[in-house]
């Protein structure tokens, strides 16, 4: 414990484990500590008895729910975009050899009280019941523009500089109505609110292209993949990676107090009377509460069911996005459903999450629009948790703090935070130009 390290990582949440793996691969000497005796931190996976203890205060769940150990319930459930940055990180680090993925069955959007499959290409736009016949033609033209758009080929820009033209202006050129804009912005480009409309259109076009490329990758019903046995496998896979490259792990270390020198720079971490010296600390917000501020709170429901979500073509794994406008809210609502086909529940059982950025203190009434889509549930629990973000200046204290997980059911902002922190810690950008076919061996 008395050694000196380049970096000490506190907490084994997914973000911290990815960073620990990346920094170890870079040749840094890493010590990884956690006050818990399990991996995953806030993003851990629970079996049924653990779930019951946490939400019901009892360790005796109903027998009809099946065997406790057949459950792997992710506390921060998120699907992985098949062509997205997280898959590139997995391939870059070769972590795919520790994991098996399976495609997610469906991606849906809530519109005018109904659930519809998200159209992602010009052909799907023509078939979608989301739009009338004339709107379909307009949408198809817009989708073709997006599919053909190539940042480095001005011939595909149709005279528009998308780094300057706003998304609102680009969409106006195609005359799309508000309902179409709603599903394009929130269910395809995965924006969390409507601010994107007044920002440069290039970001939205890139996000739409990523969705369509990810969808094409498996020819499935969605652009997403998800690990067998849930996301709890991911932190452990990155922990194994770190260990292979010489990283040291210590779980169940109480307190983990970060130490600072007279200049206010981090100089070590103390636990059980011993101090490990270091140049930098990476941690989640709970380890340095005086260097973060609360920025919001997430309300969510976790349900166990014996059937797929209605109106999703019997999908055993599915995301449904309920755009804010459809609900008269300031932020979107998300449904995540997974089942025994991804080995996260016993045969015949489904786990569903409904989550949103909390706007009231009553999660039950706030989440009602999403919960109503689930159909009958065997059991349901509700909770809220605070979201924090760092307020420190990394260059002044060498503390690199992750932001809390948001309400979304996909990995976009999570990976952005990791890559951003990686650049701040190392001063370089992670090269994610990898051969995506290298992951195919890890998929089923």
From TrEMBL:
Q: Name one GO cellular component term.
A: cytoplasm
Give a GO biological-process term: vesicle-mediated transport
Query: What positions belong to coiled-coil segments?
Result: none
An example molecular function term from Gene Ontology annotations: Rab GDP-dissociation inhibitor activity
Q: Which InterPro entries does its entry note? A: FAD/NAD-bd_sf (IPR036188), GDP_dissociation_inhibitor (IPR018203), RabGDI (IPR000806)
Would you identify the family this protein belongs to, as annotated? Belongs to the Rab GDI family.
- Recorded protein name is Guanosine nucleotide diphosphate dissociation inhibitor
């Amino acid at each position: 414990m008395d050694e000196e390290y380049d970096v000490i990582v506190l907490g084994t949440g997914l973000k911290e484990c990815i960073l620990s793996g990346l920094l170890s691969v870079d040749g840094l000497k890493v010590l990884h500590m956690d006050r818990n005796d399990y991996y995953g931190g806030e993003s851990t996976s629970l079996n049924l008895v653990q779930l019951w203890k946490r939400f019901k205060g009892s360790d005796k769940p109903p027998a009809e729910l099946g065997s406790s150990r057949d459950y792997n319930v992710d506390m921060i459930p998120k699907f992985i975009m098949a062509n997205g940055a997280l898959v590139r990180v997995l391939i870059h680090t070769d972590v795919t050899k520790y994991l098996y993925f399976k495609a997610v069955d469906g991606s849906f959007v809530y519109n005018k009280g109904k659930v519809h499959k998200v159209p992602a290409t010009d052909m799907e736009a023509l078939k979608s019941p989301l739009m009338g016949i004339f709107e379909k033609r307009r949408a198809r033209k817009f989708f073709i523009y997006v599919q053909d758009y190539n940042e480095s080929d001005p011939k595909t820009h149709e005279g528009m500089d998308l780094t300057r033209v706003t998304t609102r202006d680009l969409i106006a050129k195609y005359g799309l109505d508000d309902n179409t804009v709603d599903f394009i912005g929130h269910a395809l480009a995965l924006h969390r609110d409507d601010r994107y409309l007044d920002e440069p259109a290039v970001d939205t076009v890139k996000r739409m292209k990523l969705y369509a490329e990810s969808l094409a990758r498996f020819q499935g019903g969605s652009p997403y993949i998800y690990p067998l046995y849930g996301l709890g496998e991911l932190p452990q896979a990155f922990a194994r990676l770190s260990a292979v490259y010489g990283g040291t792990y210590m779980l169940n270390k109480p307190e983990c107090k970060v130490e600072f020198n007279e200049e206010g720079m981090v100089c070590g971490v103390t636990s059980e009377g011993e101090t490990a010296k270091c140049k930098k600390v990476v941690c989640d917000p709970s380890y340095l509460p005086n260097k973060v501020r609360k920025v919001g709170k997430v309300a969510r429901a976790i349900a166990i069911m014996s059937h797929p979500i209605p109106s999703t073509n019997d999908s055993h794994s599915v995301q449904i996005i309920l755009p804010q406008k459809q609900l008269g809210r300031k932020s979107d609502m998300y449904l995540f459903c997974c089942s025994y086909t991804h080995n996260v529940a016993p045969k015949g059982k489904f786990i569903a999450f409904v989550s949103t950025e909390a706007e009231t203190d009553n999660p039950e009434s706030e989440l009602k629009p999403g919960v109503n889509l689930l159909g009958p549930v065997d059991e349901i629990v509700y909770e809220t948790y605070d979201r924090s973000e760092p307020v420190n200046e990394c260059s002044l204290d060498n503390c690199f703090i992750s932001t809390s997980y948001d309400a979304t059911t996909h990995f976009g902002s999570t990976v952005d935070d990791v890559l951003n922190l990686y650049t701040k810690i190392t001063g370089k950008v992670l090269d994610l130009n990898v051969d995506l076919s290298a992951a195919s061996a890890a998929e089923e």
